[in-house]
UniProtKB/TrEMBL annotation:
One of its GO terms (molecular function) is DNA-binding transcription factor activity. Keywords: DNA-binding, Transcription, Transcription regulation. InterPro entries: ArsR-like_HTH, HTH_ArsR_DNA-bd_dom, HTH_MetalResp_TranReg, WH-like_DNA-bd_sf, WH_DNA-bd_sf. CDD domains: HTH_ARSR. This is DNA-binding transcriptional ArsR family regulator. It comes from the Bacteria. Coiled coil: none annotated. The keyword Transcription regulation applies. Residues 91-111 are annotated as: Disordered. It comes from Stakelama sediminis. Residues 97-111 have a biased composition (Polar residues). Pfam families: HTH_5. Residues 1-87 form the HTH arsR-type domain.
């Protein structure tokens, strides 16, 4: 539980969780949303993984990150993000990314 509280104590990590609320993102896509170095973003992702809040999957040369949905802390964080004015726009952006991903997948499947 200590790792979860440590992970959630950072504004950057809470924002990363908001971005991952609806969509899987690569480390590069996450880093592109912050004005910090890619190694710093990787460190934040590592903290989130060690806390069990996100999981990663290597596909080709990219590592994709997603929320661990079954984690109680993520459920509570999702609730808090609904009432947090800073997180609302980030969650909307995440939902938009999910829709873009679906549209691209449907286009790829079309004959």
């Amino acid at each position: 539980m200590q790792r979860v509280f440590e992970a959630l104590s950072s504004t950057v990590r809470r924002k990363i969780l908001a971005y991952l609320s609806h969509a899987e993102l690569t480390a590069g896509e996450i880093a592109g949303r912050f004005d910090i170095s890619k190694p710093a973003v990787s460190q934040h992702l590592s903290v989130l993984q060690n806390a069990g809040l996100v999981e990663s999957e290597k596909r080709g040369q990219f590592v994709h990150y997603r929320l661990v949905e079954a984690n109680l802390a993520n459920a509570l964080n999702g609730y808090l993000q609904e009432v947090c004015p800073v997180s609302r726009p980030l969650k909307r952006e995440s939902a938009g990314l999910k829709n873009q991903s679906r549209t691209a997948a449907q286009t790829d499947e079309a004959p």
